[in-house]
Amino acid sequence: MRRTSSTIRKRRSPRHPRTGRAAAALAAGALALSLSACGGGGDGGGNDPGGGTQGTGSTVTLPELNGQSIEVAAVWTGTEQANFKKVLAEFEKRTGAKVTFVPAQDPIINFLGSKIAGGQPPDVALLPQPGAIKQAVDRKWAKPLGAEAVKELQENYSQGWQDIGKVDGRQYGAYYKAANKSLIWYNAQVFENAGASEPKTWKELLTTAQTVYDSGVTPFSIGGADGWTLTDWFENVYLSQAGPEKYDQLAQHEIKWTDQSVADALKTLAEIWGKKDYIAGGANGALQTEFPASVTQTFTGGDQPKAAMVFEGDFVQVNIGETEAKVGTEAKVFPFPAVGETAPVVSGGDAAVILEDSEAAQALVTFLASPDAATIQAKLGGYLSPNKNVENSAYPNDVQRKIAKALVDAGDDFRFDMSDQAPQAFGGTPGKGEWKILQDFLKNPQDVAGTQRKLEAEAAAAYGG
């Protein structure tokens, strides 16, 4: 999974939930409680990946679309793409339409621009940022969702998840997929051998890392070749340390990246990034490690993997599935530890947006906004839906059921990925902007002030001043 941010004119990011510290604490508490209650990683037993929601049958009415064809574009690859194609196959079965999946390149906004310029836009695209939806609207690419799709969203989604798919009050995006991006996954055998415990605070995380290191295993695996993983590290530290209000301000560039709160977050990150022996391969090795490999190298090699822990979202389970480790037993998870008063809750997601308006395109987005579609992919694993009417039992193991419940229970009390709210030039382009600057900071985490200056210069240019 990945997302890139969009290029937007001088403006604030689209409206997203603004909640206070107490609300963020409630959400973080629910997440921590739910994960700590996880037992083993049962497979859910006999979940059929087809059909409608568990125990309820089909809940969404779809038109007959025999003879109609549409294309759907997304950056998803591998298992993620294969599982989504099963959802599309169910739509085909119910409607008679033909759906073709179009693999998109990252950043998807640039990919769509070239397809549109060539006169071959896909009918529907899965866009990974609120800013990308806004740009698609500004460029007159996106079409508003129809009444049936809006009805599904209103019935199945919290107001916050509806709002981040809106532009100027109109619904353009349906968030089909969500991500809980405040998780650290670990090799349970390594922890057991080392006598390490799950930390609840940043100070405890550093102690756990040292305990693991002393046992002969490198503490962290970092997929630094993908700059977005580094922005996610920063966002979790910043949200917890600076608080939700500052997080909102920085996300909209209402405060500068030279602010002391940014310096504090970078110095905190340096407590891990600055210890080359704490990172598999050191900084140079991390910068040559792509995200999928950062996961698999944590859960291969038995109790002597290349690293004991890897930070990223619930979607890590897809990559764990490529190893022999079982989620909930060999591969366990804990919430990103609290740096400040509360632990962070950072979310991301992918929204279905219509580019070529038609009955079939509207029907597909309506289907994707229903519990029926989300339940199919939930049963297959490595997926999280913000749809509150997906039955929790649809998820295939205890860990994922707990993560899904925490997301739904949080309601509107979350923060969306900061870099996904930024202009693409700053927050979402490989080798540029925040991605590149944080990669450079991983190599030289002593240069806090210089990193801040570079971040501010790039942000000011991207936001238009």
TrEMBL record:
Start and end residues of each stretch annotated as Disordered: 1-21, 42-61
InterPro entries the UniProt entry points to: Bact_solute-bd_prot1 (IPR050490), SBP (IPR006059)
Keywords in alphabetical order: Signal, Transport
The keyword Repeat belongs to this UniProt entry's keyword annotation: no
Pfam families: SBP_bac_8
Origin superkingdom: Bacteria
Ranges annotated as biased composition (Gly residues): 42-55
Keyword check for Lipid biosynthesis: no
Compositionally biased tracts (Basic residues): 1-19
Cleavable signal peptide: 1-39
Family affiliation: Belongs to the bacterial solute-binding protein 1 family.
Protein name in the entry: ABC transporter substrate-binding protein
Organism expressing this protein natively: Streptomyces bullii
